[in-house]
């Protein structure tokens, strides 16, 4: 117990506390959020843009990126489970993320910065007038808000908004910025025009990648390692139902992402075909690059024959009716089907990650045209070291004429 005696280590810890207080005051926090309708996998892409911006900002100051809690995503529709205020640590390995750029969870920000206050929100928007003279140029200006502001003032004069479901969060000042260009274009403004220690960029998807698929892009992407419990569940499933282990599949893995540098073609993959079949909104608007269920099954069967694989793992967001039809036409298929208890623990996001992890380890993969869910699987396989021919494949629409296959983006180490 605490006796009140003055021991040396008490003094030391007091000094350390003061020191930490001083240093943490020097930190500047960059927070961000994304347009509500955007899905999980596009949000992962926006993270890469923000990590780039923070790296640029850190050349002149101690900026830290605050991770926007997950939740209220349109696609996460499993009923009766709590799916807001989910910290990044439930889906990604924080130590891995931190090996790329300093990041903290939102609740850590609240604890460190003195409370649920954000000093300045900058809502990014396009220019009301569009591109002038049809000419592209990078620019940023404070402008009147184009859309209705999603923040409103409370009785004390603070702004209230969604703030990831943290109702107590308040903001001192909200302004709109018209911006067109890459993420780091915002750095001079954040350094010179803003004195706040906490700045949130809303609608962060407005700015583009600094350099898509460049070295910095890939460093950030490689640091986005899935949380260990999700990888383990995926591996257990592979071993149990797909006769697939890293050793047998010749997949070299390391907990430290900076040490993974696999040659393309070195990974063999588990003895199954991995399929990502995106349905729901992709079929509702009758896109010509998305197949009918029958068309997809025909392609899967021909691939199984060609690759001599007799097992197929299917990741899909298909509804129950389509699922039943799929199973009828393709009895050999396997899916990761969590129990309700598992789902409550993993959430829709965790299940999606396990699906992606299993697809990423298949000997051959085929995904859905322009689905960011499929794109993230491509990247994961690129990291693991698969031969590109086994990765950059997509289904074609039943009557699609030119069925262009996905682009191979090589890792820059
Ligand atoms: N478990 C699982 N969920 C999926 C699958 N396909 C889609 N989903 C769900 O539906 C969402 C699809 O949207 P995302 O791809 O994340 O979001 P998006 O940015 O809109 O991407 P696309 O619409 O696919 O380009 C995912 O986040 C999942 O929640 C799948 O194969 N398995
Ligand atoms: C930022 O400050 C500079 C110099 O004071 C000024 O010229 C510029 O217009 C400011 N930018 C914005 C977007 O307010
Ligand atoms: C709000 O922020 C803008 C942009 O930085 C600034 O011009 C304005 O003075 C701020 N308003 C208040 C009340 O602090
Ligand atoms: C699992 O794969 C190994 C080769 O990787 C093979 O020798 C073994 O027979 C397979 N087991 C089953 C049950 O298919």
TrEMBL record:
Gene Ontology terms describing biological process: fucose metabolic process
GO molecular function annotation:
peptide-O-fucosyltransferase activity
Catalytic activity, EC: 2.4.1.221
Of the GO CC terms on this record, one is:
Golgi apparatus
- Swiss-Prot/TrEMBL catalytic activity: L-threonyl-[protein] + GDP-beta-L-fucose = 3-O-(alpha-L-fucosyl)-L-threonyl-[protein] + GDP + H(+); L-seryl-[protein] + GDP-beta-L-fucose = 3-O-(alpha-L-fucosyl)-L-seryl-[protein] + GDP + H(+)
Annotated InterPro entries = GDP-Fuc_O-FucTrfase, OFUT2-like
User: Which segment of the chain is annotated as a signal peptide?
Assistant: 1-24
Compartment list = Endoplasmic reticulum; Golgi apparatus
Keywords linked to the UniProt accession: Carbohydrate metabolism, Disulfide bond, Endoplasmic reticulum, Fucose metabolism, Glycoprotein, Glycosyltransferase, Golgi apparatus, Signal, Transferase
Named in its record, the pathway it takes part in is: Protein modification; protein glycosylation
Relate the protein's function as given in its record.
Answer: Catalyzes the reaction that attaches fucose through an O-glycosidic linkage to a conserved serine or threonine residue in the consensus sequence C1-X-X-S/T-C2 of thrombospondin type I repeats (TSRs) where C1 and C2 are the first and second cysteines of the repeat, respectively. O-fucosylates members of several protein families including the ADAMTS, the thrombospondin (TSP) and spondin families. Required for the proper secretion of ADAMTS family members such as ADAMTSL1 and ADAMTS13.
As for family, the record states: Belongs to the glycosyltransferase 68 family.
Can you say what this protein is called?
Answer: GDP-fucose protein O-fucosyltransferase 2
Gene from which the chain derives? POFUT2
């Amino acid at each position: 117990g605490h006796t009140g005696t003055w021991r040396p280590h008490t003094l030391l810890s007091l000094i350390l506390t003061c020191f930490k207080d001083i240093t943490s005051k020097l930190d500047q926090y960059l927070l961000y959020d994304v347009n509500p309708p955007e899905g999980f996998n596009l949000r992962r892409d926006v993270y890469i843009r923000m990590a780039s911006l923070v790296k640029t900002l850190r050349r002149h100051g101690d900026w830290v990126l605050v991770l926007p809690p997950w939740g209220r995503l349109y696609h996460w529709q499993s009923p009766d489970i709590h799916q807001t205020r989910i910290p990044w640590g439930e889906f990604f390995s924080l130590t891995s993320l931190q090996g790329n750029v300093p990041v903290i969870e939102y609740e850590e920000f609240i604890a460190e910065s003195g409370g649920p206050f954000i000093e300045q929100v900058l809502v990014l928007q396009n220019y009301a007038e569009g591109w002038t003279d049809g000419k592209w140029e990078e620019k940023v200006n404070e402008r009147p808000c184009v859309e209705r502001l999603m923040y409103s003032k409370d009785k004390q004069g603070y702004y209230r908004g969604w703030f990831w479901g943290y109702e107590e969060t308040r903001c001192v000042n909200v302004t709109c910025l018209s911006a067109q260009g890459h993420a780091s274009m915002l750095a001079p403004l954040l350094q010179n025009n803003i004195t706040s220690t906490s700045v949130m960029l809303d609608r962060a998807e407005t700015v583009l990648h600094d350099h898509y698929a460049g070295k910095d892009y890939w460093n950030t992407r490689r640091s986005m390692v899935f949380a260990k419990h999700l990888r383990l569940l995926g591996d257990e499933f592979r071993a149990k139902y797909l006769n697939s282990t890293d050793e047998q599949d010749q997949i070299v893995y390391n907990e430290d992402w900076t040490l993974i540098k696999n040659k393309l073609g070195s990974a063999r993959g588990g003895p199954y075909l991995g399929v990502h079949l995106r349905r729901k909104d992709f079929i509702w608007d009758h896109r010509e690059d998305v197949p009918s269920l029958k068309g997809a099954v025909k392609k899967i069967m021909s691939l199984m024959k060609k690759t001599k694989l007799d097992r197929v793992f299917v990741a899909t967001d298909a509804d129950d009716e389509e699922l039943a039809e799929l199973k009828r036409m393709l009895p050999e298929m396997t899916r990761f089907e969590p129990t309700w208890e598992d789902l409550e623990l993993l959430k829709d996001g965790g299940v999606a990650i396990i699906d992606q992890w299993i697809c990423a380890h298949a000997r051959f993969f085929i995904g859905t045209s322009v689905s960011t869910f499929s794109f993230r699987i491509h990247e994961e396989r690129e990291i693991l070291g698969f031969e590109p021919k086994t990765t950059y494949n997509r289904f074609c629409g039943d009557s699609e004429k030119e069925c262009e296959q996905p682009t191979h983006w090589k890792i820059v180490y």
